[in-house]
Specification:
Elements (H helix, E strand, L loop, with lengths): L4 E6 L2 H11 L2 E6 L3 E5 L6 E6 L10 E5 L3 H10 L6 E5 L5 E6 L5 E6 L13
Parallel strand pairs: 1-4, 5-8
Antiparallel strand pairs: 2-3, 3-4, 6-7, 7-8
């Protein structure tokens, strides 16, 4: 089994397209006003947004995108006007993360984990 894609809700697909393209995702399906799908710049995973009348209550969805050069990516996004809730910092789970939200309140985490992504010291054998 392999993860194909993650889909998050949006009340404004054109705004979502602009946001995720600014993050570096490549738009591959634009079915306005209901849906958009993107390719991640690395690997084979895709990501999509679908139109909804109402967003879920609570914190929304957490979506993680791994970046080989996290600090450089964040610096570039900040220079282009992207606002972050949390700048890159080292976490106790051995990942380096930065956090922001999309226009629909989904939490987007840009991170770098290296080998610790799948093989942390506490991995179950």
């Amino acid at each position: 089994m392999n993860l194909n894609q993650v889909t998050v809700p949006s009340v404004n697909i054109p705004a979502a397209i602009a946001f995720y393209q600014r993050l570096g995702l490549k738009l591959i399906v634009e079915a306005l006003p209901h849906y958009a799908r993107f390719e991640c710049p690395d690997g084979t995973s895709t990501f999509s947004v679908h139109l909804t009348d109402r967003l879920p209550d609570g914190e929304g969805t957490y979506v993680y995108f791994e970046c080989d050069d996290l600090d450089g990516t964040v610096a570039s996004l900040i220079a282009s006007g992207t606002l972050f809730e949390e700048l890159p910092n080292d976490k106790s789970w051995l990942w380096r993360e930065a956090r922001l939200r999309d226009q629909d309140n989904n939490i987007i985490i840009l991170y770098y984990a290296g080998d610790n992504r799948k093989n942390p010291p506490w991995r179950v054998n």
